[in-house]
Amino acid sequence: MNEFIEFIKGNLQLIYILILAIFIGVELIKNVPTVLHTPLMSGANALSGVVIVGAILVMLQSDPENYLALALGFIAVVLGIINVVGGFAVTDRMLQMFKKRK
User: Fold this and answer.
1) E strands along 1-102, which residues?
2) How many other β-carbons are positioned within 10 Å of the β-carbon of residue 19?
3) How far apart are the first and last CA of the chain?
């Protein structure tokens, strides 16, 4: 518990910046018009590809005996793939709304 408190004391400015970024992000997302929300979110979901590549690189560089790093990397890859596929599915569904019906 003392280590946690020392970590908080040592990184207090970073914690303040994180809290401020959370409040700013919530306000920005709350004020995005509905028409722009889906394209912005699908673009943001595509950034999960970076998480996938990063997780694969971390898994390649980790020690084969380090099961925690391998498990966390695997979870990151799976969640990133789910996010990318979901983002593309939402984008496809949104684009279907703009097609003319026969």
Assistant:
1) none
2) 10
3) 65
